[in-house]
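Need tokens for this chain, all 325 residues.
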Amino acid sequence: MSRLFALVLTAGALVFAASGDGNKCTEFSPCSREGYCDANAMFCMWDLCDPTKSYNATSCWQPEGCLDQTIEFDSSSDVVPIRQYSGNPNTNALVSIFEPDNSKIENGKLVLDMTYESAQNKGFGTTVHSSHSFQYGTVTARIKSASIAKGVVSAFIIRSDQVGDEIDFEWVGKDPNTVETNIFYHDILNYSNSRYFDVGGDTSAEYHDYTIVWDPDFIQWAVDGKTLRTFKREDTYNKANNEYRFPAAEGRVGLSIWDGGNSGSDGTEEWAGTPTPWTPSTVYQMFVESITIKCSGSNPASSDTAEPQSSTIANSDSSSENAGV
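Here are the structure tokens for all 325 residues:
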């Protein structure tokens, strides 16, 4: 279980350990996440929910599909804590997926906080995901990073949690003028995929437009309209496995701030800078002025997403197919 999810459980979430035939969830708590079961968005939201341990094939919510949109954070409903999310992506553009929720909209900007967690002697950050899924297209986020101290990591990503495919921009506090671009395929760690670029100034002092263009054949990263890098699918062929190690799985757009300097991982701490400086009152903040999403994939949002999603519960005499996949 991830440390962040463990904190959600201790914070008082009503959850049940997975049980029943094949160690699956029960009829009344049908959605599985990291070995625990419940019936709300924290467990049922697509890509957080594990269909292999959930009650049946329809327990996990379906991918919402991509929606062309610009989010300018002029409404408090643009981001919602996951426990309050109904499953209707047209009501809330972003969902804050961990508790306590350290996201807020302030002065027309999305603010992601990282605060000090004394019990762990490290920071507790924030992750927000788009409520619509995304597969191929262009995403631009206007961001001011939280890179004011070593160890503080800010991220703008497209990721599939279930598959482990990811495309990202990341900023680390030890080098505030630089942005890292990277990809992951099925969570395989490959250091040769990362590239670093000088933005031309302190990324925590000024806003910049960061753009990811994701095509089935290539990925591009740009800052303020200038393309920094092009990564081609044709260059990722792995002969031993007869596969292209190129991110292709449908996922979500995400933004996050987290403590890399006190992570407990030597490699991560060296990369981010260590230790992250903390006092009980310290708060690190990442600011997002806008997000623009333009879709080009084959899974557009449908009118069905105008209503909240819910998990389908099978009758007790359901076939073995409905008992879980």
